[in-house]
């Protein structure tokens, strides 16, 4: 459960919704995931600040305590490449308003190694003005894997992510996994519920999402440098998975970022006004 510090954090940072404390909603979610094994849970503001985490999440950051994590951002806790990947997912969530389900991502383990997790994220709050993002990540490293193919799946995933923008094939990934293509396909379906090709396309899409959010490069340039045959191929795949064209996604993201910036500016102005009023009252 939340201690006093965390309860105050939520109460101050998140507005009440429909007459109930949104801090209570987040507290309930956190309590639900407190001791679930092999599962990382967090809630962050739409600006990216962590509002609640479970101990499994803390263990992956090496921060030592929940309180040490609250108030930080992904870039404060994880290597730049991983932080950029997590933020790209958040950008997609905010731009589309649609939950992300079963996204593959690398996450740090307590021993400092990286492992593959399946992550789902959703917005919390009214559709028109969500106030937080909830995320649940499940470790793909099962306690027991009688098939003995898990190491091969992990190797194939790592190879695919490293070479996502190159014209690699299923056979290339199978070779990296030291499995036959049939064995790899079966292992992917069993572990991830996805085909090998679908996983590779997801990694390419991740590259595109980061580029759309962090650069002013044209969609055609991004397509050419992200492993797609041409802009049309990227647009078809992007529209099918994300639900809008790359151009519309970038426009929505810019609007969302603009709204967040305005919200931050309003908050700063309000805080400045409150400080001034407090000072006047004190003087009186």
Search tags:
284 residues, alpha+beta, Beta-Lactamase, Arc Repressor Mutant, subunit A, 2 domains, 5-stranded antiparallel β-sheet, disordered C terminus
How are the secondary structure elements laid out?
Elements lengths: L3 H10 L8 H12 L5 E7 L4 E4 L1 H7 L4 H4 L4 H4 L2 H17 L3 E9 L5 E11 L7 E8 L10 H13 L7 H8 L3 H12 L3 H19 L4 H6 L6 H12 L3 H38 L1
Antiparallel strand pairs: 1-2, 1-5, 3-4, 4-5
Q: Would you count the extended β strands for me?
A: 5
Helix content: 55-70%
Instruction: Please give the domain count.
Output: 2
The CATH architecture of the largest domain can be named as: 2-Layer Sandwich
Oligomer: single chain
| SS field, number of helical segments | 13
C-alpha Rg (nearest Å): 21 Å
Ranges where pLDDT stays below 50 over 5 or more residues in a row are 1-20, 142-147, 272-284
β-strand percent reads 5-15%
Mean pLDDT, nearest integer? 78
CATH fold node name of the largest domain: Beta-Lactamase
Most strands sheet: 5 strands, antiparallel
Structural class call reads: alpha+beta
The H-and-E topology, N to C, reads as: HHEEHHHHEEEHHHHHHH
At the fourth CATH level, what is the homologous superfamily of the largest domain?
A: PAS domain
């Amino acid at each position: 459960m939340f201690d006093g510090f965390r309860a105050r954090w939520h109460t101050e940072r998140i507005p009440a919704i429909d007459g109930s404390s949104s801090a209570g909603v987040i507290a309930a979610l956190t309590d639900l995931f407190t001791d679930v094994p092999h599962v990382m849970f967090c809630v962050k503001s739409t600006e990216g600040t962590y509002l609640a985490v479970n101990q499994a999440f803390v263990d992956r950051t090496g921060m030592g305590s929940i309180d040490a994590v609250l108030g930080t951002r992904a870039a404060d806790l994880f290597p730049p490449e991983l932080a950029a990947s997590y933020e790209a997912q958040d950008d997609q969530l905010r731009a589309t308003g649609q939950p992300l389900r079963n996204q593959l991502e690398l996450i740090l383990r307590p021993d400092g190694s990286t492992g593959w997790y399946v992550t789902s994220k959703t917005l919390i709050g009214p559709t028109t003005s969500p106030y937080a993002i909830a995320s649940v990540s499940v470790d793909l490293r099962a306690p027991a894997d009688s098939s003995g193919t898990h190491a091969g799946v992990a190797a194939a995933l790592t190879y695919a992510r490293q070479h996502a923008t190159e014209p690699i094939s299923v056979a290339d990934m199978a070779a990296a996994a030291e499995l036959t293509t049939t064995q790899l396909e079966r292992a992917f379906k069993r572990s991830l519920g996805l085909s090998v090709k679908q996983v590779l396309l997801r990694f390419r899409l991740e590259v595109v999402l980061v580029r759309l959010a962090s650069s002013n490069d044209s969609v055609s340039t991004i397509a050419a440098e992200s492993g797609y045959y041409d802009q049309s191929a990227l647009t078809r795949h992007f529209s099918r998975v994300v639900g809008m064209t790359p151009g519309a996604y970038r426009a929505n993201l810019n609007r969302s970022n603009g709204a967040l910036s305005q919200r931050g500016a309003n908050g700063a102005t309000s805080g400045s006004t409150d400080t001034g009023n407090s000072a006047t009252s004190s003087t009186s």
